[in-house]
Amino acid sequence: TTTTPASGSGPRVSTLDRETADRLAATEYTRFATLLAELTGEQWRAPTVCAGWDVRAVAAHCLGMAEMAATRRELVRQNIKAELRRRRRGEEPIDALTGLQVDEHADMTGREIAAAFATVGPRAARARARTSGLVRRMRLPGESFPGDVPWTMGYLRETILTRDPWMHRIDIADAVGVPMELTAEHDGVLVDDVVREWAARHGRACTLMLAGPAGGRWSFGDGGPELVHDALDFCRRLSGRAPADGLLATQVPF
Hints:
With 254 residues, this protein is mainly alpha-helical. It has nine helices and three strands; from the N terminus they run ααααααααβββα.
């Protein structure tokens, strides 16, 4: 139980302590790699909720993001190429980046993507953990999320780069019809961070009850509606993957 935190005017920083953020990143890369390693040939071609992407494309994007997080050279290279693509095609910055990542791995089979992710994931986790305090405090240029305050590099590296493969792990598990590995110690911490950011963004009193291993109960302020959902469905709605109204229409970046 907590009071509703103020969203503030930014810049947006990670609310996770560094030890927790590093642990979540390493675990999520491992779980994502494990899921990819278990996929069969037909499953790689299953359509996902991400428009125009099958499972292989989602995995290719996640591989590209992990490669970008693993080295500074790759971070710079991808951003330069994505900016050129954005100007040429008139795409949104995030669409240009993710599209580039999918296209650059278009010739790889699902099995090759899975093997590459298993190798680069631990490297990405170590590189993110080594990010200096100075870099973490830097503001990212432009608008990272529609209508949001500026993001810091720390928010991107400690929060978003873990939420992204976590949400795509949900996408893949949904697409191929397999259960998703969930624990309170990992997924529950990620969901708790999402819930608290969501509450700060809408700033309204409410009580939230989320079912499942990643769920829990939260109370923000006095009074307000009581919302009951499955934890993963709650995150699907906040990410824009499922219909949402009322307080759930307040989106949170993944």
